[in-house]
Amino acid sequence: MTRRPLHDAKSVVIKIGSQLLVDPETGHVHRRWLESLADDIAFLRNQGKEVTIVSSGAIAVGRRHLGLPTGKLMLAEQQAAAATGMVRLAHAYQEVLGLHDLTVAQVLLTLDDSENRRRYINARNTLTELLRLGAVPLINENDTVATDEIRFGDNDRLAARVAAMISADLLIMLSDIDGLYSANPQVDPNAVFVPEVMGYITPEVEKMAGVQLSGDSRGGMVTKLAAAKIAMGAGTTAMITLGKELNPMQRILNGARCTVFVPEGNPRTARKEWIAGSLKPMGRLYLDAGAMKALNSGKSLLPAGVRKVDGKFERGDAVAIMDPDDREIARGLVAYAYDEAGKIAGHKTGEIEAILGYRGRDEMVHRDDLVLT
């Protein structure tokens, strides 16, 4: 069966490397290429797909404007270059996508945003809302404040974390090569192209990656395979394909060669398994009969259906959800800390603002963050 991951995907994350986007000599954005990508994104949006961009290039652009030397930069120099370059990059994206009446929303992330549960939930909610409102999130690592201890280190893995965060169907990594080979084809003329990797990435597949790149581009096949592994673990299909030609998305739709990494599950099942089996509940929510009926019909848990709150948990923590007979029937990620959850338990959604002093989420636990056990 011929796989058509881009045709079938509803939510797509596109990772763009520095070498594709920026002239290494001048630091100027490859404008014609970016315009063709904007045409592609507009086409995907018209097909009803959500599109998120993870873009490298800020340091490559900024260092030239600041007159920094070629070669490896110190961390402080990278931060200064990123601060200068990201403004120009975001402006370039807004210009080309604005021609299609698409709004760009810049989001800067650090590793801590994906590992700290509360910040992870905040980032996920922001990105989900931006996509719901029709914006195109433009994401980069927050190089201006990140340190060696909290940085992703490359935007391939950042893109994979973002894809997992928003439960994207497909991660596309645009590269200077058309996919994975059994060895580096620039060195080994007998290298064999690998069109598909099923289920998981084995040590044998990892050995095909070779060595990591240096310079402005911190990626390479090593980090792309690491990103594919993260994506597959979250149920997201990953793809590596040649990106330097114009209209790279149209080329994929027309059957351009690529390596596809196919996970065993899908984003929804992977997330549900993670919530059900990998997270320790930090508290309990006790439901009434009406809330039980709502959950069994696939709805979210609203505060009105919670009769009691137990435990000490923070927003985004896992909680056990108990039926009227005090038996665990579900687990989920709670949208409120324990003290706030206790205050709004049993109250209607319209009363939340009056009780807490701000308008929070309507749901105590959203159905996407809940799994029946």
Brief account:
By secondary structure, this protein is of the alpha/beta class.
Give the SSE layout:
Blueprint: H1 5-8, E1 11-16, H2 18-21, H3 31-46, E2 50-55, H4 58-66, H5 75-98, E3 104-109, H6 111-115, H7 117-132, E4 136-141, H8 155-165, E5 170-175, E6 180-181, E7 193-194, E8 196-199, H9 203-207, H10 221-233, E9 237-242, H11 248-253, E10 258-263, H12 267-277, E11 283-287, H13 289-296, E12 306-311, E13 318-322, E14 328-333, H14 338-344, H15 352-356, E15 370-372
Parallel strand pairs: 1-2, 1-5, 2-4, 3-4, 5-9, 8-10, 11-13
Antiparallel strand pairs: 6-7, 9-10, 11-12, 13-14, 14-15
Helix pairs in contact: 3-5, 4-5, 8-10
Q: What is the CATH topology descriptor of the largest domain?
A: Carbamate kinase
Task: Give the N-to-C terminal Cα separation.
Answer: 34 Å
Principal-axis shape equals globular
Rg: 22 Å
Instruction: Please state how the strands of the largest beta sheet are arranged side by side.
Output: 3-4-2-1-5-9-10-8
Q: How many strands in all?
A: 15
CATH class of the largest domain: Alpha Beta
Question: What structural category do the secondary elements indicate?
Answer: alpha/beta
Could you tell me the strand content as a percent range? Answer: 15-25%
Mean pLDDT: 89
Number of structural units classed as domains: 2
Could you give a short account of the major beta sheet?
Answer: 8 strands, mixed
Please give the share of residues in helix. 25-40%
Low-confidence stretches: 212-218
Counting DSSP H or I runs of 4 or more residues, the number of helices is 15
Report the order of strands and helices. Answer: HEHHEHHEHHEHEEEEHHEHEHEHEEEHHE
CATH architecture of the largest domain: 3-Layer(aba) Sandwich
| The CATH superfamily title of the largest domain | Acetylglutamate kinase-like
